[in-house]
Design brief:
With about 300 residues, the chain is of the alpha/beta class. Helices cover about 35% and strands about 25% of the residues. The protein has one domain: 3-Layer(aba) Sandwich (UDP-N-acetylmuramoyl-L-alanine:D-glutamate ligase).
């Protein structure tokens, strides 16, 4: 089993009410790869400029991530600058510089083409299709997207979804894509396209999944302090996919546990800026919070089931 993750490699400048970081390690592929690496071996495909610090590639390698598919080319690394107010669910983009990512069109190596599991992080759906065309026989393909592509390239995005097994999407994007205020209707409509599972990310309100066996809802972990939510959705997807690969199974029980594993890693990620919190984690931390999640949603009736009869 192998997991290939393709997406952005970035240097982020982020301001929240709790601090500021400049040119910090970021990007969808980075967050997802680091999250997945707690569960399985990961190969990443992305592009960075000559300004990308070697300490970041060293860190990725130290996590056991195969970075042979990380291209270092002439030019500047993709940069994103944003701020969050006390409503940390809402990012305010201040500046986006695609730089070398603007011309990203990866040619996968032989091992990456044979990957059994693939996560296509948020990026141009035409690039996602280019990657799909190179895969030999993947067992499971998952994709992510954003409102920019829903508006700008809806037909290409639909083709990506039709060739995927799992879709990660946030609540606002699901409503936009399906033109409905109901997340339940949106999930059903997307699932009816042939997806194995639709996973709707709801930020601090948890997540909602619809798979062939029905709905599954999970809370977010109750944190007293959130410092930086950047990369939370990508960490969620990475943890989700990493767990599925480690299990070698895509049954309903594995899918439900994958939601919790994704939630666990994302909950740790938001406790500090960039990847700083994830750098301190080990499998014991993941297991401990996984068990806490189980207790969050477990309850028993203290007595006989009450019933109300109308007379």
């Amino acid at each position: 089993m192998s997991l290939l993750i393709v997406g952005s490699i970035a240097l982020d400048t982020v301001r929240t009410p709790f601090g500021v970081v400049e040119d910090a390690l970021g990007g969808a592929a980075v967050y997802a790869s680091c999250a997945a690496s707690f569960f399985t071996d990961v190969s990443v495909a992305g592009v960075a400029g000559r300004d990308f610090p070697s300490r970041h590639t060293d860190f990725l390698s130290s996590r056991g991530i195969d970075i042979s598919g990380l291209e270092i080319t002439e030019g500047q690394t993709f940069r994103w600058s944003g701020r969050y107010d006390f409503d940390l669910n809402q990012a305010h983009t201040l500046d986006t510089q695609l730089n070398v990512f603007a011309d990203f069109r990866p040619d996968l190596g032989p091992a990456q083409r044979r990957a059994s599991h693939v996560f296509l992080a948020n990026m141009d759906p035409d690039i996602q299709l280019h990657i799909l065309d190179q895969l030999e026989q993947p067992e499971l393909v998952a994709c992510d997207t954003m409102n920019f592509w829903i508006d700008g390239k809806p037909e290409a995005l639909k083709r990506v979804i039709s060739r995927s097994d799992i879709l990660f999407i946030n609540d606002a994007e699901a409503r936009q894509l399906c033109n409905t205020s109901s997340l339940i209707k949106a999930a059903r409509e997307l699932h009816d396209t042939g997806l194995r599972a639709v996973v709707i990310k709801k930020g601090e309100h948890g997540s909602l999944m619809l798979c062939d066996e029905g709905f599954f809802a999970a809370p977010s972990y109750p944190l007293e302090e959130v410092r930086d939510p950047t990369g939370a959705g990508d960490s969620f997807a990475g943890g989700f996919m990493g767990y599925l690969v480690s299990e070698g199974d895509c049954g309903v029980d594995s899918l439900r546990c994958a939601v919790i594993c994704g939630s666990v890693v994302a909950s740790y990620n938001v406790e500090d800026f960039s990847l700083e919190r994830m750098k301190q984690l080990d499998r014991n931390d993941i297991a401990a919070r996984f068990n806490e999640f189980r207790h969050l949603s477990t309850f028993e009736s203290p007595g006989a089931l009450l019933s109300v009869s109308l007379e």
